[in-house]
Amino acid sequence: MSIIDHPLTLGQNLSLKPFPQQSPDATSSTVLIVGGGVTGLINAWVLLDRGYHVTVVSKEWASFTEQQRLTSQIAGALWEFPPAVCGQHTDILSLQKSKHWCMVAYDIWAAIASNPSLSALAGVQMRASNFFFPCPIEELPAQQHKMEEIAAAGVRGFSRSAESIHKHGIDPRYGAVDAYEHLAPVIDTDRCMEWLMLLVQSKGAKFHTETITSDLFSQEQELLDRFSAGVILNCTGLSALSLAGDKTCYPLRGALIRVINDGKDFPKVESSLAITADAAQDNEIVFIVPRNDNILLIGGVAQPGRWDLDLTLDSPEIQRMRARAEAFLPSLKHARVDPEYPIAQGLRPAREKNIRVERELRTRTMDLHGEPTEEPSRIIHNYGHGGSGWSLSFGCAADVANLVEDVLHNLPASKMRLQEKDVVENVRMAAPLDRRSMSGPIRARL
Fold first, then answer.
1. Which residues have a Cβ under 8 Å from the Cβ of 380 and sit 6 or more positions away?
2. Are 266 and 65 in contact (CB under 8 A)?
3. What pTM was estimated for this model as a whole?
């Protein structure tokens, strides 16, 4: 937990312009970010706009060819209020903090989507997001509580109506009897990763391709010296298994079928449609999301502990996944898969206690005037997001920026714990975004 707390405010300490909100100078500290996925890039953006020098080190970067894409590109990237559809959020502390983090991200993604030219460049749109249930929501206490939190947190366009079952062509024989919807950011990950890479480079980030192995703590001083850095930020996702020495990290394999959504083979799907794992009768997910104007994603699977990426359209779990989606939305029986990129699969970076946003807690014993003293590490961790990296991105990055200040002020490290801002009942609705201009500040939730 950070002792310093500066909220993330678009227009004040976060800028959409291709130069930093606050320019660094010769005395500004350098932050070394390890990891080039969405978490690393969003953290780079936030830190660059606060006047830091930033170097991002990654073993690989977003690719747009037939080779395996980054996990950040594979993601469904539908903004969700936690727990997410895949139902893998189990740690109470992480879950409660995620409710704050996701709302910070919600405001900023919505601001990007509200500007037509920026929305097209970044691949971010606001779309209706629909969730369906096999019984009245009141019979599912966890889902009812989540729905009430969404309605109270300031998520836009919330409404509850079983009429959306007929409206969206859901087969009543599938068993959906209740539903709600709200507006949510939907992100074209290929386009957004490309935009984020260009944005942070234009703001001054340096990219360095290198594979770092073994625990960062064991090589901390060497990395600080080699990159002239004052802080190391670990955004390595599943690689935190070795780079943070965290044996509780594990893969949560996922896959999505990509089909053509141009309105020729079935009525064009404009909204996301989902049944969550804990609400589904068979505990299997239905996840249908428009990726962009022409591609629809059909999912999903969540397979813990599976490292192999060998799924095909003929794999039994993929065939079951498609059959569920077609039973739920019969018009998909006529869907054509994307011939160039039919299936996306990757490993969600999961962790037993879910998300970790905190400083390294291990210390080194140093000799100070002949007396042993404990020296805190200068490493900060931001990993374990599972399938929620895009949804939590800016919220986690805001907390990381505060932790960077703690490190540079030589303040003591402490475990991640709840703060008043993390209690969703205390969150107040922000003023509506001014869609006519992006020049004024837009305050993310405190």
1. 231, 232, 233, 234, 358, 359, 360, 400, 403, 404, 407
2. no
3. 0.91
